[in-house]
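stage 2 :: seqdesign
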């Protein structure tokens, strides 16, 4: 396969060998050379000063003209490398080309055929490391695939709010399948199986579906109006969704089997938080980031007292970690009443921070204070056990460790304290074992994840499948969607085999 440089040169010269299948003049009358001259369009946003006072969407979305102009940049490559970068294998040039044809309904249909959650993914996918990285224009400036996906999906969801679409009713012709967990993996497997004629029930522990999309990612990144509209398109297909059911406690594997379910999909995510094990960590005012975000986002403590659930947050908040969860926690904290300082404490440098660059950039713009090369070593508390400060030590980067990243090592005699009254631990999550314990015979790795066959997503227990974070640890939404699609195919093949 030609490399990106060659592809780009070919696209620039208009060589037919380049693989470009689009006619030289597209529906907008432009040639490929014209397209190459159009610059990538920026995303309009609330100003940092405004948005830090509210929970409304930070990004404002493309308007019609900007979306059309961005769509004109796509070369509609014959060998679309962007699709290789998308775990859900969306027909990316297809949905973009439909924008140029002014047919948003068709564009949305193309998105939905591959991805149950395009509006969500347009907003939260790390496109820069996926489809936009493999876009033939990546070296110069890739097509803004995520922004276009967000534009098309949100435009159509708005449209369907006024004129509800015809509901996709597929008659039930096949067996009952139980899906455990209503995160992106569970929702995807449910949608794909329903389309194949299965009788699907999702069992969800929380009172609302969505998984991390609802309890973890804050509304200023993923407005709940959009999330709910997208989840409703799935539930509206006739999938049964039963909330407040903890598989492994209120419902066991034996119960499910007794109810004549013929296959089970485990999509229970990785919601079990990790702590550092440092002295004083059980002080009052120390939270796992997951609990804090769940209170603020899912229980809507950000809107207290209009909502029922409060959350305690002081004036000086430290968040330990530098992944997406840490950025969300630090940015949520800035928006909570009474907070004066929101710190990120991270033992490596900005270059190693696992959060999306966009999230780091937004956090910096909004005034999060970054303490890089800093390792917490003790939580200082008063005589009533309330946290008063975080004791830290400075770090420097040493030799690379097994992950290939340079290992942070403490610099002797550099201890210092950061005054703080709320501490959020965002140093990683593992799968919660409650659900797995209910299914005897599952293979579990030393990281607590479930082992699966990567093609079919079947576990070591015949008829039990798994996907998303429960199989790989904390990952991405689109990875969970990709697993859900594979698992739906795996379940269908397994049950078809039993039917003979
Ligand atoms: P989850 O989304 O975790 O869903 C699992 C569901 O199973 C939950 O609803 C849970 O309540 C339910 N469940 C668990 N146990 C049981 C049980 N015993 N019985 C019944 N139900 C159960 N990814 C991105 O791509 N972009 C981002 O910007 C991004 N930001 C993130 C921010 C935060 C704060 C976090 C925590 C994660 C973020 N991620 C992001 C990661 C992404 O959200 C996850 O990889 C993805 O949601 C995994 O999907 P899932 O379906 O496997 O699990
Ligand atoms: Fe080619 Fe990029 Fe368009 Fe994909 S998005 S078809 S790689 S130009």
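stage 2 :: out
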């Amino acid at each position: 396969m030609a490399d990106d440089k060659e592809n780009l040169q070919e696209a620039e010269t208009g060589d037919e060998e380049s693989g470009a299948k689009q006619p030289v003049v597209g529906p907008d009358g432009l040639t490929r050379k014209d397209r190459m001259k159009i610059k990538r369009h920026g995303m309009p946003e609330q100003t940092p000063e405004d948005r830090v006072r509210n929970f409304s969407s930070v990004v404002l979305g493309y308007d019609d003209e900007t979306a059309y102009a961005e769509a004109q940049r796509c070369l509609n490559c014959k060998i679309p490398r962007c699709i290789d970068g998308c775990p859900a294998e969306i027909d990316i040039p297809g949905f973009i080309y439909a924008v140029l044809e002014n047919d948003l309904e068709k564009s949305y249909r193309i998105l939905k055929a591959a991805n149950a959650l395009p509006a969500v993914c347009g907003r939260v996918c790390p496109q820069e490391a996926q489809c936009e990285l493999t876009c033939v224009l990546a070296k110069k400036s890739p097509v803004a695939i995520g922004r276009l996906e967000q534009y098309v999906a949100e435009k159509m969801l708005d449209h369907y709010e006024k004129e509800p679409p015809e509901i996709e009713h597929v008659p039930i012709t096949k067996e009952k399948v139980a899906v455990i967990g209503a995160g992106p993996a569970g929702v995807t497997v449910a949608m794909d199986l329903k389309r194949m004629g299965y009788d699907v029930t999702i069992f969800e522990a929380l009172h609302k579906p969505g998984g991390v999309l609802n309890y973890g990612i804050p509304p200023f990144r993923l407005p709940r109006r959009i999330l709910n509209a997208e989840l409703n398109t799935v539930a509206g297909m006739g999938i049964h969704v039963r909330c407040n059911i903890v598989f492994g406690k209120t419902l066991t594997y034996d119960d499910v089997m007794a109810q004549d379910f013929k296959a089970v999909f485990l999509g229970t995510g990785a919601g079990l938080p990790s702590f550092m094990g440092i002295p004083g960590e059980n002080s009052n005012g120390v939270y796992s980031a997951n609990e804090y975000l769940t209170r603020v986002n899912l229980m809507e403590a950000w809107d207290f007292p209009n909502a029922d659930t409060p959350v305690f947050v002081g004036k000086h908040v430290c968040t330990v970690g530098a992944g997406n969860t840490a950025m969300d926690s630090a940015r949520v904290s800035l928006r909570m009443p009474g907070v004066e300082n929101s710190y990120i404490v991270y033992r490596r440098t900005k270059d190693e921070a696992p959060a999306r660059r966009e999230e780091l950039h937004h956090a910096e713009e909004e005034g999060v204070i970054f303490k890089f090369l800093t390792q917490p070593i003790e939580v200082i508390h008063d005589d009533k056990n309330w946290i008063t400060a975080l004791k830290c030590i400075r770090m420097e980067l040493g030799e690379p460790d097994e992950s290939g990243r340079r290992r942070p090592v403490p610099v002797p005699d550099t201890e210092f304290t950061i005054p703080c009254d709320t501490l959020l631990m965002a140093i990683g999550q593992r799968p919660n074992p409650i659900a797995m314990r209910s299914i005897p015979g599952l293979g579990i790795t030393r990281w607590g994840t479930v082992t699966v066959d990567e093609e079919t997503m079947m576990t070591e227990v015949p008829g039990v499948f798994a996907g998303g974070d429960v199989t790989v640890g904390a990952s991405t939404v689109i990875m969970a969607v990709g697993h859900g699609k594979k698992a739906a195919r795996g379940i269908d093949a397994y049950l078809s085999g039993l039917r003979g």
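stage 3 :: structure notes
- The pocket of iron/sulfur cluster (ligand 2) is lined by residues 74-77, 80-82, 92-93, 135-137, 143, 145 (CB under 6 Å).
- Confidence is low (pLDDT under 50) at residues 14-22.
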